[in-house]
Amino acid sequence: MKHILLALLFLCSISALCQTDNITTQLYDTYENYKESTIGKRRIKHADIQPLIAEISANKAFKVSTVGKSIGGKDLSLISIGSGDTNVFLWSQMHGDEPTATQAIFDILNFFESPDFSKEKEEILANLTVHFLPMLNPDGAELYQRRNLLGVDINRDALRLQSPESQTLKRVRDSLDADFGFNLHDQSTYYNAERTEKPATISYLAPAYNYEKDINETRSNAMKIIVFMNEILQKYAPGQVGRYNDDFEPRAFGDNIQKWGTSTILIESGGYPEDTEKQEIRKLNYVSILSAIYTIAKKSYENIAIEEYEKIPENDRKLFDLKIEGATYNLKGKNYIIDLGMNQIEVDYPDHKSFWYSSRILDQGDLSTYSGYETLDASGYTIKQAKAYPKTLNSFEEVKALNFKDVLKQGYGYIRLSSFPSKHINSPFPVHLIGEKYKIPELNLMPGINPTFFLEKAGVIEYAIINGFLVNLKENTINVPNGMIFR
Ligand SMILES: [Zn+2]
């Protein structure tokens, strides 16, 4: 009995969490019922969300209004629900290539449209009015870039207000005089929770409103909500939460909105293993943001101790997509032991709706303080240069007919082609394609080069690294999304 009591005490160290623990679990377990399936990849566009907004407009429970236009002339919509006195304002994607929370907002809207969870929804909508401004930078989203068409970072335009998107955000914030604000972003997937190997899947900040980093009631309430959300995430992504440095940035929106009296919570969606399109992170946004809205409605956050906020580990940037540890590298007749950190860098196709990879070595040497989403202990293995396949092939069809595992096992990483169909800008195969006259440069490992080489032990090639992707040649699968073309 005593043990059970102790366990309960431990689980309910934060009473607000105790009260909402059940609902959080239910939200997580029933997520698929509300997930907006039409926006399942990161490169979503303004045109993708317009039909969803139109559908919501037809529902009388919601108030939908056009509150501004982007430089490119795209409508910015504000969607509101509820009749409570406390105003909660959520805006997403002021950076065009940060779409995860935009997707989660439409999942949350689906939740509000459904007949389920009626008791909890009544509590929310009687106490709060919740306002959503999804995709604040639709022109940036169109090009899948951070900045707007003016080339300005909207998050440095809170004072000068030159961008119509910034003017809209400021005007809406002021008109609502929101009590709580959720400033929703994505961060680099290479951030980790400080001094751990875990990615910062979600990072938080209760931005400072002055250089002294004072904590008034507005900021303190934001910290309490963050402590609450962190507890939830620890259940689903243990150790994968980070905290941003709170240096005051006088030009940023989060800092100013805090200053203007709205308790502001910055949420940054980072990386999660094997979740390239960040759909698990989207789900964590859905669960944690909805739970936070519920706790604001019930005011159960009020007794949370803000000391817990400082205990969330800080963000660091010590992750690679692939880390090779302790490989032997022969340079000018001498052997060296070297770690290699490489990233699988995305390059957009011209329509900015999909991408391919052009990977790079980011760092090399002693990388013992870094980790990888994927790590290979290569001690005892020697790095070998990739060679060109001895025969020149004439078409993609001939390349396609090759047994790639055999090709790689023999140390061939390049296939010479007599001609290329012009539409291809990369190799759809797990090898690079080279032109008839292309001379493969001697392998000279250096940050900036495309990581392509083999790992050999006792004269046998056991691993291939092609375009920064690791292939274990003892296994049957080859996971290299694409190679490069060098003409
Ligand atoms: Zn951002």
Order of strands, main sheet, comes to 1-2-4-3-5-9-7-8
Structural class estimated from helices and strands? alpha/beta
**Contiguous uncertain segments of 5+ residues:** 1-10
Report the mean per-residue pLDDT as an integer.
95
Bound molecules: zinc ion
Number of strands: 24
The level of helicity is 25-40%
Characterize the main sheet: 8 strands, mixed
How many DSSP H or I helices? 13
- How far the N terminus sits from the C terminus, by CA atoms, comes to 73 Å
**What sort of overall outline do the alpha carbons produce when their principal axes are compared?**
elongated
DSSP strand content:
25-35%
Rg measurement, Å: 25 Å
Give an overview of the whole structure.
With 487 residues, the protein is α/β, with parallel strands linked by helices. It contains 13 helices and 24 strands. An 8-stranded mixed beta sheet has the order 1-2-4-3-5-9-7-8, with helices on both faces. It is elongated and about 75 Å long. Mean pLDDT is 95; it is low at 1-10. The structure holds zinc ion (ZN).
SSE order and pairing:
Elements lengths: L1 H10 L3 H15 L16 H12 L4 E8 L5 E8 L3 E7 L7 H14 L4 H10 E6 L4 H6 L20 H13 L3 E7 L5 E2 L8 E4 L11 H20 L4 E3 L9 H7 L3 E7 L9 H20 L8 H5 L3 E2 L2 E13 L2 E10 L2 E3 L6 E3 L2 E6 L5 E7 L4 E4 L1 E2 L7 H5 L3 H6 L2 E5 L15 E3 L18 E5 L2 E7 L2 E4 L12 E2 L1
Parallel strand pairs: 3-4, 3-5, 5-9, 7-8, 11-16, 18-19, 19-20, 20-24
Antiparallel strand pairs: 1-2, 2-4, 6-10, 7-9, 11-12, 12-15, 13-14, 17-21, 21-22, 22-23
Helix pairs in contact: 2-10, 4-10, 5-10, 8-10
